[in-house]
Amino acid sequence: EAGVTQSPTHLIKTRGQQVTLRCSPISGHTSVYWYQQALGLGLQFLLWYDEGEERNRGNFPPRFSGRQFPNYSSELNVNALELEDSALYLCASSLVVGTGYAGYGYTFGSGTRLTVV
Amino acid sequence: AQSVAQPEDQVNVAEGNPLTVKCTYSVSGNPYLFWYVQYPNRGLQFLLKYITGDNLVKGSYGFEAEFNKSQTSFHLKKPSALVSDSALYFCAVRVLSSGGSYIPTFGRGTSLIVHP
User: How far A92 CA sits from the closest chain B CA (Å)?
Assistant: First the structure.
C-alpha cells in the first residue's frame, strides 16, 4: 500500500511569489490535513479537508489556502510568500469515521521543504 | 483551552539506559492520544496511540506509553535506549475545535539524544 505522497520534496521561491504544494493520501482515506513545521515551532495546524470541503482552518492568514479534489488528493497554495513561510510542510491523511470523528491515526507524508529567499 | 504540552525541549540519555519523554494534555472529554517520531528531513511516523483500555500502551520499536488520567499525562518510555532512537518525538491529542470537529494537535516536540 502506497503511503502519503507529497510533491515536490524541495522548493526555493522568492519573496512575493506564489507556491503550490501537492499531497496524495493513502487510498481510501478521505481526510487530508496540512501542517507547517517551522524551526523551533513544532507542528502548526493549517487546514483540514474532507470529502472535498474545508472542514477546519488553523490560525494562518488567508494567503494560505487549498483545496481537495474528487480523488481526495489536495493542494496547498501560499500566495505572496514571506521569508517566515520557510518551513517543512507536512500532509497527513486519515479515514474519517462518522461525523466529527477524525479517525484513530494520521499517516504523514515526508513533507515539502519550502525555502523563501 | 485544549492543548498538549511537552515540557522538555531535549532529553539526553546514555545507550542502554531507560528513557522517558514527557507529555501532558488538557482536553474536554476522553482524550485520544498519540506519539509520533520524526527522523531528520522526514515526515512523522506513528509510534502508538491510546484510545481506551489498558493504561500501558505498547507501540513500535519497543516503545510504550503510560496513560495517567489523574495526572493528565501520556509519557513515552523505553526500557533500554538505542543510539538509533535519537530523533524528534511528538505527542499529539485529538482536540475538539470550535467548529465541532476533531483536529489532531501536536506538542512542540522533544529532541531525544542517545549517547553511545
Answer: 9
